[in-house]
Amino acid sequence: MSPNRVHVLYSTRRYFSIPELSSESVWMKDRQRVEEILQSMSKDGPNTLQVISDFDMTLTRFSYNGKRCPTCHNILEGSNAISNEARQTLDDLLHTYYPIEIDISRPVEEKLPLMVEWWTKAHELLVQQRIKKDELAEAVRQSEARLREGYECFFDCLHEHAIPLLIFSAGIGDILEEVIRQANVFHPNVKVISNYMDFDESGILRAFKGELIHIYNKREGALLNTGHFEELRSRPNVLLMGDSLGDLDMADGVQDMKNILKIGFLNDKLKERKQSYMDSYDVVLVGDASLEVPNAVIRFLTGNK
Description:
Helix content: 40-55%
Number of helices: 12
Radius of gyration: 20 Å
Distance between the termini: 28 Å
Mean pLDDT: 89
Low-confidence stretches: 1-15
């Protein structure tokens, strides 16, 4: 038997030890490439792995019982922390700009200033509401935000194996952290890069800290946090998870990368966006998927098969 034939058989056996990847709701354009990436990452071991993920609609559910689940911004919209008028304005902004965000016919260069416009308007409106810091926990508690099924396994397994989890979010970092904290999975290996609120000495929101992070500049956000990436130079294998094409650049700040496996959540408008996601992500999870596939991949890469 030729060496190449042996390689193919070995790769196939390894691949089929992850049966979750054979589900009808899992799309792959290049199955062999996925097999080869997994084989290489598995050979290198879990000490070389890091996970980089989006949050809203990636680690959280897109919908539940037919109703859209809230993003970090939406959690505040549904709380008593803001007025009805502000709530309506934020909803209007969502219906104006979200269709632009997911419109595959528009180039990123055209979307970019509009995304900045959206986030800037939303943040300015929230500042005007004089939100109190101690209202955030209750806002999350009363919301219908849901992490995807399997989140306990996802967060706990990464923590158990000391695998860093970097969460990039264009949402609100304070809200994001509270969601994870209330789910009891905010472990020390989790680092969040997002838009954080700046409260005055009275605990009233007065501004947002630092540079605005939106869906199309997470790469820049990564480069601004070079200290974090310097610590991860010994982890050249990346599992990247996102729900938009803008998330594909999140790992660009990683130095000396060896392998990257990109898992994309295609939550809605499947027909319109199928091809662009298949062309961009190695693995596409269709519909409001659970974390079953990422968990299976992590178990495989950590030897818990």
